[in-house]
TrEMBL record:
<keyword id="KW-0418">Kinase</keyword>
<dbReference type="GO" id="GO:0004707">
    <property type="term" value="F:MAP kinase activity"/>
</dbReference>
<feature type="domain" description="Protein kinase">
    <location>
        <begin position="1"/>
        <end position="245"/>
    </location>
</feature>
<dbReference type="InterPro" id="IPR000719">
    <property type="entry name" value="Prot_kinase_dom"/>
</dbReference>
<keyword id="KW-0547">Nucleotide-binding</keyword>
<dbReference type="GO" id="GO:0005524">
    <property type="term" value="F:ATP binding"/>
</dbReference>
<keyword id="KW-0808">Transferase</keyword>
<dbReference type="InterPro" id="IPR008349">
    <property type="entry name" value="MAPK_ERK1/2"/>
</dbReference>
<keyword id="KW-0597">Phosphoprotein</keyword>
<keyword id="KW-0067">ATP-binding</keyword>
<dbReference type="InterPro" id="IPR008271">
    <property type="entry name" value="Ser/Thr_kinase_AS"/>
</dbReference>
<keyword id="KW-0723">Serine/threonine-protein kinase</keyword>
<dbReference type="InterPro" id="IPR050117">
    <property type="entry name" value="MAPK"/>
</dbReference>
<dbReference type="InterPro" id="IPR011009">
    <property type="entry name" value="Kinase-like_dom_sf"/>
</dbReference>
<comment type="similarity">
    <text>Belongs to the protein kinase superfamily. CMGC Ser/Thr protein kinase family. MAP kinase subfamily.</text>
</comment>
<dbReference type="Pfam" id="PF00069">
    <property type="entry name" value="Pkinase"/>
</dbReference>
<protein>
    <recommendedName>
        <fullName>mitogen-activated protein kinase</fullName>
        <ecNumber>2.7.11.24</ecNumber>
    </recommendedName>
</protein>
Length: 297
């Protein structure tokens, strides 16, 4: 339901759209929902399994990811599950972000009950603050995921392939080095903070040692994305303006949402029949383009 609500309202070249929703005559007959989307021949995960990318391809794919993410964030939405398999590609190298099943609206006027404790993102692309239960989390969690994707495009392998929660943290610290005192202060979970403080000191590994053949500008941007402290992580707007993406950067051609989403109700833990009714209403809205139906997330 949340994915339908988001995608029927998003209109952007780098976000998968909904072309049609096949509806049934009545809610009683609705057993399944069939959504028609544009054909994309492959995804970034499959591509990285079969070939190494040139710097030109990495730069172009990264630009499209960030261009789509700028639109998503401008709508007050966190994707929360950015990873190579959720980045669709076609034969002309067009990229579209898909799978908004874990997306949430970051409405500052809403009490996000349970927002922090939900499953978010495939572990390898999960920002450290999510695992450490920091003081809330923001759009910066998506930037971390994009940083992980950039690193994977540079080497054809995941940068932080943790086998479990602690192993994931150890992979991150093994590259970024031990967190600073400022970094530790943004962690409210005392056990997590104590655990990090108990670990032996780890130096930061230079990006050029990990990716010796990479464009220096790509590594500079990577470092700004893969920053432990979310408050110091680069924003999507600043990432687009980074010198690495200079050949594509065009603020006039990087649209934002017409208006941000607001949450009118929580969609989690709704009764099955209520969800069914809301989904059926969305199919009616789509097929009739009926703007009189309540626009609620």
């Amino acid at each position: 339901l949340r994915e339908i609500k988001i995608l029927t309202r998003f209109k952007h070249e780098n976000i998968i759209d909904i072309r049609d929703i096949l509806r049934v005559p009545s809610i009683e007959q609705m057993k399944d929902v069939y959504i028609v989307q544009c054909l994309m021949e492959t995804d970034l995960y499959k591509l990285l399994k079969t070939q190494r990318l040139s710097n030109d391809h990495i730069c172009y794919f990264l630009y499209q990811i960030l261009r789509g993410l700028k639109y998503i964030h401008s709508a007050n939405v966190l994707h929360r599950d950015l990873k190579p398999s959720n980045l669709l590609l076609n034969t002309t190298c067009d990229l579209k972000i898909c799978d908004f099943g874990l997306a949430r609206v970051a409405d500052p006027e809403h009490d996000h009950t349970g927002f922090l404790t939900e499953y978010v993102a495939t572990r390898w692309y999960r920002a450290p603050e999510i695992m450490l239960n920091s003081k809330g989390y923001t759009k910066s969690i998506d930037i971390w995921s994009v940083g992980c994707i950039l690193a994977e495009m540079l080497s054809n392998r995941p940068i932080f392939p943790g086998k479990h929660y602690l192993d994931q943290l150890n992979h991150i610290l093994g590259v970024l080095g031990s967190p600073s005192q400022e970094d530790l202060e943004c962690i409210i979970n005392e056990k997590a903070r104590s655990y990090l403080q108990s670990l032996p000191y780890k130096p930061k590994v230079p990006w050029s040692r990990l990716f010796p053949n990479a464009d220096p500008n790509a590594l500079n941007l990577l470092g700004k994305m893969l920053t432990f402290n979310p408050h110091n992580r680069i924003s999507v707007e600043d990432a687009l303006a980074h010198p690495y993406l200079e050949q594509y950067y065009d603020p006039a051609d990087e649209p934002v949402a017409e208006e941000p989403f607001r949450i009118a109700m929580e969609l989690d833990d709704l009764p099955k029949e209520t969800l069914k009714r809301l989904i059926f209403d969305e199919t009616l809205r789509f097929n009739h383009n009926d703007n009189n139906l309540p626009d609620a997330m």
